[in-house]
Amino acid sequence: MSQRSLLVRALWFVLVGWWLTPALVNVAWLLNATVVLLPLGIKVINLVPTALTLAEPRSLSEPDAREGQRSLLVRAVYFVLVGWWLSWLWANVAAALAVTIVGLPVAVWMFNRLPYVTSLYRFHG
Question: Tens of pLDDT along 30-77?
Fold first, then answer.
């Protein structure tokens, strides 16, 4: 699937992405805290780069999408020990940076890496 034009993605960010992304992050974090809804929370976190700038994620069904992914066990242990709290902090710092012109490039970089910070999931966008 091809990426949308830079103009469309920029308009999306200005009109929707900047406020939708922090809301999604905090909803995902609350879902993750319930443990029962953890799988849904992780899916929401993995959608953050798309919510921010309409970046198209690569499907896990594509042949090279699974390359470089850590095992589910390693990712689960990381999430329990580090990912749940670090991703919340990471995402909220990125959200604060996103509302400044100087911090915007760093915020986009941080949001694009949020799935990795959360669960070591390599986002292929």
Answer: 998 887 898 898 888 888 888 888 887 655 445 455 567 888 899 889
Kindly report the length of the chain. 125
Which structural domain range is residue 16 located in?
Answer: 6-119
Number of domains within the chain: 1
Q: What backbone phi and psi angles, to 5 degrees, belong to 28?
A: -60, -40
* Distance from C-alpha of 83 to C-alpha of 75, rounded to nearest angstrom: 9
Distances, alpha carbon 18 to alpha carbons 50, 60, 70, 112, in Å? 12, 26, 30, 13
| pTM, full prediction | 0.71
pLDDT tens, position by position, 68-87:
788 889 988 998 899 888 98
Is residue 125, in this structure, part of any structural domain at all?
Answer: no
Q: Report the amino acid identity of residue 35.
A: V
From the CB of residue 57, how many other CB atoms can be counted at a distance below 10 Å?
A: 15
